[in-house]
Amino acid sequence: MQHRELGRSGLQIAPLVLGGNVFGWTADEATSFRILDAFVAGGGNTIDTADGYSVWVPGHVGGESETIIGKWLQQRGRRDDVIIATKVGWEVNPENKGLKKDYILRAVEGSLKRLQTDYIDLYQSHKDDPTTPVEETLEAYAQLVKEGKVRAIGASNFSAARLRESIEASAKHGFPRYESLQPLYNLYDRTEFEQDLLPLMQEQNIGVIPYYGLAAGFLTGKYRREEDLKKSARGGGVGQKYLNDKGLKILGALDAVSSRLQATQAQVALAWIMAQPGLTAPIASATSPEQVTELLKATELQLSPEDLSELGQASA
């Protein structure tokens, strides 16, 4: 599988990133291990998680996903074979949130312990913290890079203005710079990223690893009517946002292209992201090894100019 460089980080990643948000939530530990096995066996090499996964589940405290990944790394002996990306800054609890230096330096130790590793390949600011100067956050990352605990840093859910401010601060003070951005981006959710962030990504050669590449499962085609929303834990949110005229128009285009290519709608939706200029690799999660195998086939799919045009027009 052909790898792509993530910004100027030196990290070479496969064109599909495995999302770890489901580990310990809709995929138990044994299933998560099989998913991870299938992903690496299929040529994938980058796993994305966060210290906040999965605080939204009743009884969870955060770190459940990292803990499962750490156990898998140790039991399989695969640490050198994969790139581990995790995040800090989401509210794990009222005392543990944000991007202040002392908190980042404390939070990274928890992530390293749960992941059972002595370094994180890509450590990302999960979301902007407007109460903290960007210089303070970057100073913390500079210390972690110097100590060898972090190889490269990235941002997630940042505005173009705050990302540019951070890049300028890195250049001014000699801090590491954000080498990747994790934004919301898929065939349905395009406008904000393409208008505000994409020009900055291309100007600065920053990698892009978008989340919700399948729009919370909507672009797989399994949600087409109100009654379909009961199929999964995410159905309610999908219905509120995506089950409308625009969403159905996009599904129509996905149906047509996937039929021509004898592929699934999910594969086409991910291949469309991979084909966009400036996009490095979409993140997708799976709840079974079979889903992983299906999603990885997107990396082999070649969309023609006509395919891209049909999908682009339906989702514009």
Automatic annotation (TrEMBL):
Transmembrane segments: none annotated. Pfam families: Aldo_ket_red. This is Aldo/keto reductase. Residues 15-313 form the NADP-dependent oxidoreductase domain. GO terms for molecular function: oxidoreductase activity. One of its GO terms (cellular component) is cytosol. Keywords: Oxidoreductase. PANTHER family: NADH-SPECIFIC METHYLGLYOXAL REDUCTASE-RELATED (PTHR43364), OXIDOREDUCTASE-RELATED (PTHR43364:SF6). It comes from Hymenobacter taeanensis. It comes from the Bacteria.
